[in-house]
Amino acid sequence: MIRYTDKQKLDAVKAYRKGGGGLLATAAAQGVNVASLRKWVAGYDSLGDAGVVTKRRSNYDPAFKLEVLRRMSEEGLSSNQAAALFNVRRRSQVAEWWRLYSVHGEPALRPGWKEEQTTMKKPRRQRDDEEAPADDQRSREELLRDVQQLRMENAYLKKAQAFGSSQETLSARERTLIVIELRPHFPLAGLLRTACLPRSSFYYQQKALKTIDKHCDLKSKIREIFDRHRGRYGYRRVTAELKRNGWTVNHKTVQKLMIAMQLKSLVRPKRYQAFAGAVCETAPNHLQRNFTADQPNEKWVTDVTEFKVNNRKLYLSPVMDLYNREIVSYEIAERPLPSMIESMLNKAFDRLGSSERPMLHSDQGWQYRMPAFRKRLQENKLVQSMSRKANCLDNAAMESFFGTLKCELFYINKFENIEDLKVALHDYIRYYNVDRIKMSLRGLSPVEYRQRETQGWP
């Protein structure tokens, strides 16, 4: 916990009261915690400088505590407001007074009352100058009781050694486990006295031990899905995957469990840089940002993206079908030559039926304004469409794929060379088409969606 000097506190409060900014802005500018600043301001409004500077430890009498609780009850003050108003050193102390008074009444406000209730009464120690009664003068019941006490202490010490700790370092949970195990053989009161364990703490720990994690199996399944997809899935896709496997679960439950398990998607924020180069001969924007298609091979989009590994570059040129966002063809090369685009087109044309003539949309890159490229599209009777100048939103579907690819593969992995990256790209595109589900496709992968919708697969 950060400790601030009195000067830091007063400077922060005065800076806030000057009106230069809100709590967040002032706390950031002064380098203090915003929650602490909020308390200092409340204390300053009530008591001036005295409500901000560090207070000395003090014992409050019952009358003072009653007055604080009375003002809280009559004026509806919170514990923080009451602490600031009466200059109480610790805010949580007022809340503790309120709790004790509500449960136990006015006697609970006396100093030392809590220790009196929780301290176990220890047996009276025999003074050295007192003579212990001889064994023949003690009754049989007393001797049996002493024997049982020794047996109980011996059994407890053996159990404590099994935990690998001394009795003084055992936690309340470990001592409770020992008491539960020995309870069938010895009285509970004697075991608690031997373990130096308050009765209330024993029952609290016993209840906690009986609590079963009802989400144990669900957590295991979430972990399996998260690891299988290498941290690329957030809670929405994990929920969809669970439902595909027969689990009935709400996405909020999955989100809460993933936060508790510290499972967070490794996808990084997407960045975009606009291009404002010169424009030569271009095609009209026939797509008009209508990124939906009623059937496969109706609308295609394409683009080129760059990767850099150890000062060497690698280029990826894919074609995506807007019907199900499937990558119908792609080409990977170390230089963005026309041959790369030509090879990509040949693979894409092989996917077409005799009557299929899709629209092919791209940006205004030099590859797509070349006469050879435009001629190939005309020969195959494809309609060419281009985005407007320096407007990546006109080709948002392709840009979105590049962002997903880099966030789920390139940014979260370290590649030694471009050969390793090539292998990873081939593997990811297959994964993207076949295994990776999309929420916009009703929780199906692109290939599953196409097969179910066009071929009637179950």
From TrEMBL:
What sequence ranges are listed for the domain Integrase catalytic? 292-454
Query: Which branch of life, at top level?
Result: Bacteria
Positions of region (Disordered): 112-141
One matching Pfam family: rve_2
Gene3D superfamilies assigned = Ribonuclease H-like superfamily/Ribonuclease H, Winged helix-like DNA-binding domain superfamily/Winged helix DNA-binding domain
What PROSITE patterns does the database record attribute to this sequence? INTEGRASE (PS50994)
Q: What is the protein's given name?
A: IS3 family transposase
